[in-house]
Amino acid sequence: MGNVRPRPALSQSQEDYVKALYQLGGSVGTTELSERMGVSAPSAAQMLVRLCDLGLVSHDRYRAAALTPAGEAVALEMIRHHRLLEMYLAQALGYSWDEVHEEAERLEHVISERMEQRIFDALGRPRLDPHGDPIPGPAGELRPAPGRPLHECPAGVVLTVVRVSDRDPGVLREIARLGLVLGAKVEVLRVSRYEGPISIRVGNRRRQVALGVARAVFLN
Question: What is the pLDDT of residues 34-74, one digit of tens each?
């Protein structure tokens, strides 16, 4: 078993903020962060002050916030927990891909580093979660997320589904209904210029994909 990393003594809320800052990327304004977290701007600002005191965020009231190297390490650890848990729930416990995200959101805060390592080994050291997102390595290394969204793919090409967004369970169910599972071959037939549905062929079936769904499907 690899080295067990010490885990910072943070609250669940603090971990959620750090992960949100990482996912938003770069320098993040207080308003953008508050909208992501579903809280008021003053509440987000107060949390940023606390995270700054902990050395996880660089921030002042006049500029956007950004994670420090220590903050980024915490965020990647939480993402690793989350994506390994999603894989475990799907493979070992039979959860569908639209169910695993919310369960993993709860569990990612409470598993130990020892359990994380046991899950990683038991699953055969996976590199991707059930939605095709890369799982950070034990040292926090993270490969770029693969694919480009369906709505940006040109007509007349055949591509493979390599990743789907896990943020909306309803969208995931629609993606599954359309047959846009990981590994599916997709022929792009027509892309709308006016934000209408995108026409594709999956296998021998022609499908119309709403723009909101197309934005959540990534292909190579």
Answer: 999 999 999 999 999 999 999 999 987 667 899 999 999 99
For the domain with range 148-219, which CATH number is right: 3.40.50.300, 1.10.3720.10, 3.40.50.2300, 2.30.30.90? 2.30.30.90
For the domain with range 12-70, which CATH number is right: 3.30.1330.30, 1.10.8.60, 2.40.50.100, 1.10.10.10? Answer: 1.10.10.10
Per-domain boundaries in the chain: 12-70, 148-219
- CA-to-CA separations, 58 to 25, 51, 53, 65, 78, in angstroms, rounded: 14, 8, 9, 6, 19
Query: Closest Cα to residue 70, out of 127, 21, 129?
Result: 21
Question: Of all residues in the chain, what percent carry a pLDDT higher than 70?
Answer: 95
Give yes or no on whether 12-70 and 148-219 have one common fold: no
What are 128-139's pLDDT values in tens digits? 999 999 999 988
Q: Is 10 helix (H, G, I), strand (E, B) or coil?
A: coil
Rounded to whole angstroms, how far apart are CA atoms 174 and 99? 13
72: closest CA among 23, 119, 34? 23
pTM here is 0.86
182-198 pLDDT, tens per residue?
Answer: 999 999 999 877 778 99
The C-alpha torsion from 149 through 219 and 146 to 25, rounded to 10°, is 10
Q: Is 184 exposed, middle or buried (0-12, 13-18, 19+ CB in 10 A)?
A: middle
3-state helix, strand, coil in the chain (%, to 5): 40, 15, 40
